[in-house]
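Risk mitigation, structural track. In case the binding assays with 2'-monophosphoadenosine-5'-diphosphate fail to produce interpretable data, a predicted complex structure has been prepared as a fallback.
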Amino acid sequence: MADFELNGSTMVCGVMGDPLEHSVSPAMHNAAFRKLGLNYVYLPFRVSKENLAGAVEGIRALHIAGMNVTIPHKVSIIPLLDEVDALAQRIGAVNVVHNKDGRLLGFNTDAEGFLRLLKEQGIEAGRMHAVVIGAGGASRAVCFALASLGSNVTILNRTVQKALDCAADMAKYTGRTFAALELNPDNLASALAKADLVVNATSLGMAPQAGESPVNGKLLERRHIVADIVYNPVVTRLLSDAEKAGARIIGGLDMLGWQGALSLEIWTGCRAPVDLMRRAAAEAVKRYEK
Ligand code: ATR
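Fallback model:
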């Protein structure tokens, strides 16, 4: 049972995506709402690709205050919204919807969340060669953030056309050139040989496929900084291989916490308790791992 009262004035937020079984966003946001004494609740909404338009209409009809958007809807939701802020448009992905008096506004907090994470960790990515694996919505945000700092970015993706499209869009909006390659062992080896920072922005390694990694562990070296957007498990195969190679690692929960905190700030106007949100998310992941 919830240790707070839900009533007729409770504001509803949530996350829409598919699958959602392993999402820790409800635990993270509800902990923050309780801490801030806000009459809000956060729920998971499993929405298939076919039902996305209906679900977006439902946000309006049900007066849902705010929604996070995750796999596989971050890109396809854009034309369904009333307005998309300039940053989210450039990134080409929305992970936050704010229902403002019936108008649905789209934002992207993944990019700013990644920048906050780098800053907090004291990583000067502007001087680095970065390899970003994946070319979906999360990857676009990471690439955009890195390019805005001046990093040299190589994008590798299973579907090479998506890497090329991502690179072209990023180049258009940031004025920087990006390399785009197919994700295969040879390209990974040559890209990692030059890289300082490696970011997995694919879902590879996420439970229930927890043993998988996009990178052969033999390619990882002590000088690499390796970040993973996957947070479940907390230490993915990629991160444990990186640790074994002596590399510095950054887990997905740290990035999740920032994007969640920034989402909450958009919906409520309150300063979000990011550390508490991270702790709540970490505890929720531990419950899944049991
Ligand atoms: P998100 O919005 O969270 O980034 P997405 O847009 O569905 O989600 O993108 C998922 C990314 O993970 C894509 O880059 C995808 O590669 P493809 O473009 O080739 O589909 C990548 N991905 C997912 N499963 C993968 C796998 N088994 N091997 C390699 N890449 C994978």
